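Problem: given the chain below (148 residues), write out its structure.
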Amino acid sequence: MARSPLQITRRSLADYLLGAGLAALAGTVFYPVLRYLIPPPVKEVTAGSVVAAKVGEMQPNSGKVFLFGGKPAILVRTPEGAYRAFSAVCTHLSCTVQYRAEIGHIWCACHDGHFDLNGHVLAGPPPRPLAAFGVTVKEDDIVVTRPA
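Solution.
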């Protein structure tokens, strides 16, 4: 019995299904690995200012970490009620700093770095002060601005 050129045998169908299954398995395994090794490009946010908080949201002697241009920044309300903003990236090993109300400092938990409320290093290994940002209050918003 002669086969027509378009006739599919059981063996060729089984080969096709096996090949398709192996291709799907390889895609399932390697796609996440490739996505991990080649991360998608991150858009650089170049905003010069951002609304960090609302007036009345922060009590005196408190701090808030927020994103500014894709990087963490910290807004501190001093015990006197003034607002100050800094980069929240420690100048030692780039850990995120936080405000500790009980000691009144900005503190880096990674290596016990301490910064005063002007961003200057008080203790610990950080070699430089935190980058300072400008803070203005516009109506109900606390706006943090990158220096020009």
